[in-house]
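Lab notebook, bench 4. We co-purified these components, and the gel suggests they stay together. Before we commit to crystallization screens, I want a quick structural picture of the whole thing.
Request: model the full complex, all chains together.
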Amino acid sequence: MNQKRLIGLDMLKIYATMMVLFLHIDSFVMSQFGESSYPGTTLLLYFFMEAIAYPAIHLFVMAGSWFMIDKVNPLKQISKIWSQTWIVTMVGLIASIAIFKQLPSIVGGYRAYSRFSVVPTGL
Amino acid sequence: MTEYIILVMLSPFLNKGMKCLSDKELITVTVIFGCAVSVFPTLLPMFPWYQDESEMANFILLYLIIGCIKRLRSSKGNATLIKNKIFVIIQRKPFWIIMWVLSVLLLGASAFVLHRIAPAYEMYFYKYNGILVMLEAIAVFMVFLDADIYAEGIRNCITWVAGSSLVVYLVHMHPLFKSRYKEWGLFEFVSINSPAIYVMQICLTVLFVFAIGTVTGKVVDFLALPMSRKVQFVATNIRKE
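Here is the predicted assembly.
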């Protein structure tokens, strides 16, 4: 019974992660096109997709809380979260300095010479 | 993230507090806290805390709700509770599926209706501490809590993928990528004029980002594990001293 419950919470974490992505991607698209350019049906779908995805963070917290209750020492969990966050932040920073400092210029230069480019960027 | 880490640090103290309370007392505290954090701010917009929308208070409320759920589940054999009709109904999964569907319909409909009559308030019920959002979260949790998967292979796969869920979140929201989504024109392909294609494109993008994030997550876990163990070792030794 315990194993099945764990699987349920694992599925919940996957579902919650996808809902977080849903929320953010939906809002990126909305900010790109603007709400006024959405037709009525698409806007309705947008609201319902937001409604489905909105409790994503709550689900993460609830799934984590299930295991935290009855635990005395949260050190292992804190160290794991901190380590993952630190690694992602540092790798991103190094990549940002080393790789993307040059890449936008290459992409911009290609776009500038491309006949489909409107605004040359990055050069 | 910060609030979640604070919740993790507070958890031993919250656990101690909850242990001192009886089942009825814990439920009473949770209901009172829920009214203060969620119900009153939603129904009474002039409530002073509404504008703050404190995530920390919300997280603590969710922690208390989980505490209540765990307590009630361990009290299944309690004769007094079994006689209580409400307790019997909330044990059933169909009840929570209905609650899930109802809260989604109410949320979506409220936004659409408010968009027509009062556009400035269309997202009024879309608050992290809103009643409908909290109800939906509890309903989804209860539906997934007892989910069964019998195939060993699928079970292992789900556990493997779920392990990277935090890194997927961190990677896709990293300033390195977040600031460049618009620069790369990543979402220009989305067709908002065709509802079905719009939904399909959003879903496919979600799956794509999730897949990339999961692969990255496994690499990060590989790098983070030794660091995590070292942090635990150092922290444990500091405590012993």
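Residues 42 and 60 of chain A are 28 Å apart (CA to CA). Worth comparing against the SEC data before the next meeting. The radius of gyration of chain A is 21 Å.
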